[in-house]
Amino acid sequence: MNMINLTKDNFQREVLESDIPVVVDFWAPWCGHCINLMPIIEEMDEEAAGKYKVCKLNIDEEQPLAIQYGVMTIPTCAKFENGEVTAKTVGALPKAALLSQLGL
User: Fold this and answer.
1) Positive or negative: CA dihedral 95, 98, 101, 102
2) Per-residue pLDDT averaged across 88-101, rounded?
3) Domains (ranges, CATH) in the chain?
4) How much is the pTM?
5) Where do the coiled-coil regions begin and end (predicted)?
6) Is 37 exposed, middle or buried (0-12, 13-18, 19+ CB in 10 A)?
7) Per the residue annotation, which of 3, 15, 23, 34 is the catalytic one?
8) Residue from 31, 87, 90, 104 carrying the catalytic annotation
9) Annotated catalytic, 77?
10) What whole-number percentage of the chain has pLDDT above 70?
């Protein structure tokens, strides 16, 4: 598993400067829906195979980044391409719906 935990220190390098699409899971450890979504996020990470990468961002630890990207509800998943958000989902969606809405 290659999932990266994002911080303000590695966000630029891992997300904004990435050569491949990046899915960022905005979550918090106290969020039940986030915990329910975690196995799907882990599966996506295992299946990414260099087509995209999966990262997690704890909104409690990195609140300014969550605010910067307009995260009002968690879990929120955002797909970044070339440093820009190109798709976003809110809520604990089934895997097929999540992949479809993120264009993966």
Assistant:
1) negative
2) 96
3) 4-98 (3.40.30.10)
4) 0.96
5) none
6) buried
7) 34
8) 31
9) no
10) 99
Nearest to 25 by CA among 49, 48, 2, 58: 58
- As a residue count, the chain comes to 104
Q: Is 34 a catalytic residue?
A: yes
CA distance 5 to 65: 13
Tokens of 32: 């039940």
| Closest C-alpha among 86, 89, 61 to residue 74 | 89
Question: Are 19 and 83 within 8 A, CB to CB?
Answer: no
User: Which tokens belong to 3?
Assistant: 């999932």
Paired tokens of 29? 């450890």
* 28-39 average pLDDT score: 97
13: DSSP letter:
I
